[in-house]
Amino acid sequence: MAARRVCSAVLAIGLLLAAAVAAVPPHLQLVTDTDGGLSLDFHAASCPQLEGIVRAAVQAERGQDVQVTAGLLRIFFHDCLPQGCDASILLDGEKSFGPNASLQPRALQLIESIRAKVHAVCGATVSCADIIALATRDAVSLAGGPSIAMPQGRTDSLRPATNAEVNTSRRPSPT
């Protein structure tokens, strides 16, 4: 019975991820890539430990609370849908905005914890947008979902999106 619930949860997570990717309008990128610099080895020289740090942190957090996977998926979706993956979801102006106000605090804390670890080891060379993407990818994989290659090299937004920049009708409700 427990195995059936786990399979159902993994299937639901996979479908949610597929729906999140499919819901991104064609005029928006799933990544913010202002200079064409996305690649699988973007941080290979500047932060070779990056993927290991992210995966270890996500694995440890999932050991405490498996629901963090759903929290990370929702953060990734809410960040990427409006204007591309730029970590603007972590800015106070967006965290408190309507549907974002109910994002899972533990998942947000995990992203901050990973950022602090990565920056302590590598300096501020890795964007929060890349950290969100890698953490979400690892959480889905650790939950039994697909393991995908995740290009890196996104840039972080320095300000929340304005209402004119965001089609708020496309965002999911907080429940």
TrEMBL record:
<keyword id="KW-1015">Disulfide bond</keyword>
<dbReference type="GO" id="GO:0042744">
    <property type="term" value="P:hydrogen peroxide catabolic process"/>
</dbReference>
<feature type="binding site">
    <location>
        <position position="84"/>
    </location>
    <ligand>
        <name>Ca(2+)</name>
    </ligand>
</feature>
<feature type="compositionally biased region" description="Polar residues">
    <location>
        <begin position="164"/>
        <end position="175"/>
    </location>
</feature>
<dbReference type="GO" id="GO:0046872">
    <property type="term" value="F:metal ion binding"/>
</dbReference>
<dbReference type="InterPro" id="IPR000823">
    <property type="entry name" value="Peroxidase_pln"/>
</dbReference>
<feature type="binding site">
    <location>
        <position position="79"/>
    </location>
    <ligand>
        <name>Ca(2+)</name>
    </ligand>
</feature>
<feature type="site" description="Transition state stabilizer">
    <location>
        <position position="74"/>
    </location>
</feature>
<dbReference type="Pfam" id="PF00141">
    <property type="entry name" value="peroxidase"/>
</dbReference>
<comment type="similarity">
    <text>Belongs to the peroxidase family.</text>
</comment>
<keyword id="KW-0349">Heme</keyword>
<feature type="binding site">
    <location>
        <position position="86"/>
    </location>
    <ligand>
        <name>Ca(2+)</name>
    </ligand>
</feature>
<feature type="active site" description="Proton acceptor">
    <location>
        <position position="78"/>
    </location>
</feature>
<dbReference type="InterPro" id="IPR019794">
    <property type="entry name" value="Peroxidases_AS"/>
</dbReference>
<keyword id="KW-0479">Metal-binding</keyword>
<keyword id="KW-0732">Signal</keyword>
<dbReference type="GO" id="GO:0005576">
    <property type="term" value="C:extracellular region"/>
</dbReference>
<feature type="region of interest" description="Disordered">
    <location>
        <begin position="145"/>
        <end position="175"/>
    </location>
</feature>
<dbReference type="GO" id="GO:0020037">
    <property type="term" value="F:heme binding"/>
</dbReference>
<keyword id="KW-0560">Oxidoreductase</keyword>
<dbReference type="GO" id="GO:0006979">
    <property type="term" value="P:response to oxidative stress"/>
</dbReference>
<feature type="binding site">
    <location>
        <position position="94"/>
    </location>
    <ligand>
        <name>Ca(2+)</name>
    </ligand>
</feature>
<feature type="domain" description="Plant heme peroxidase family profile">
    <location>
        <begin position="37"/>
        <end position="175"/>
    </location>
</feature>
<keyword id="KW-0376">Hydrogen peroxide</keyword>
<dbReference type="GO" id="GO:0140825">
    <property type="term" value="F:lactoperoxidase activity"/>
</dbReference>
<keyword id="KW-0106">Calcium</keyword>
<protein>
    <recommendedName>
        <fullName>Plant heme peroxidase family profile domain-containing protein</fullName>
    </recommendedName>
</protein>
<feature type="disulfide bond">
    <location>
        <begin position="47"/>
        <end position="122"/>
    </location>
</feature>
<keyword id="KW-0575">Peroxidase</keyword>
<keyword id="KW-0325">Glycoprotein</keyword>
<keyword id="KW-0408">Iron</keyword>
<feature type="signal peptide">
    <location>
        <begin position="1"/>
        <end position="23"/>
    </location>
</feature>
<feature type="disulfide bond">
    <location>
        <begin position="80"/>
        <end position="85"/>
    </location>
</feature>
<feature type="binding site">
    <location>
        <position position="88"/>
    </location>
    <ligand>
        <name>Ca(2+)</name>
    </ligand>
</feature>
<dbReference type="InterPro" id="IPR010255">
    <property type="entry name" value="Haem_peroxidase_sf"/>
</dbReference>
<dbReference type="InterPro" id="IPR002016">
    <property type="entry name" value="Haem_peroxidase"/>
</dbReference>
